[in-house]
Every structure is written in C-alpha cells, then in structure tokens.
Amino acid sequence: MVYKIVASQCTACGACEFECPNAAVSLKRDLYVIDPKTCTECEGHFDAPQCAAVCPVPNTCVPA
C-alpha cells in the first residue's frame, strides 16, 4: 500500500516533500502529490510514513 495526499485538505506547506526519504512527494499545480511508484511508506527508513507524521493537517496524508 502507498500513501496519497487528499488534495482538498492540502495547504501546500511543503513539510512532506522535505521529509520523504524516497523523493516521492512533489509539487504539481500548487498542490503536493505522492508518486505511487516511488512511495514505500518509508519502509527501511522510518517506523512510520513521514508524510503523515509531519503533516500539520490531520488525515491529509493517508493510505491509498
């Protein structure tokens, strides 16, 4: 399973982009998106997905 960003809740703060160890998060049309081909849920790097851990808006970075 990979993570996704709920576009309607994303504030485009950028916190998730800098925390992703796989560079799976990028800015597209003023909103952040997660590349499902690159997202590994931070496996091998962290105990939990960092996009969800650092996002200031609850339930914005969620399992797809």
Overview of the molecule:
The protein is about 15% helix and about 20% strand. With about 60 residues, the protein is α+β, with helices and mostly antiparallel strands. It has a two-stranded antiparallel sheet. Strands 2-3 form a two-stranded antiparallel sheet. The longest helix has 5 residues. The termini are close together.
**How would you state the average pLDDT, rounded?**
95
What does the radius of gyration come to? 10 Å
Largest sheet: 2 strands, antiparallel
Shape: globular
Class of secondary structure makeup: alpha+beta
Share of residues in strands: 15-25%
Counting H and I runs of at least 4 residues, what is the number of helices? 2
Query: Regions with pLDDT < 50 over 5+ consecutive residues?
Result: none
Order of helix and strand elements from N to C terminus: EHEEHE
- Spatial ordering of strands, largest sheet: 1-4
Note the topology.
Blueprint: E1 3-5, H1 15-19, E2 25-28, E3 31-34, H2 50-54, E4 61-63
Antiparallel strand pairs: 1-4, 2-3
Brief summary:
16% of the residues lie in helices and 22% in strands. With 64 residues, it is of the alpha+beta class. The chain has a two-stranded antiparallel sheet with strand order 1-4.
Task: Summarize this structure as a short list of keywords or feature phrases.
single chain; 64 residues; alpha+beta; two-stranded antiparallel sheet; 2 helices; globular
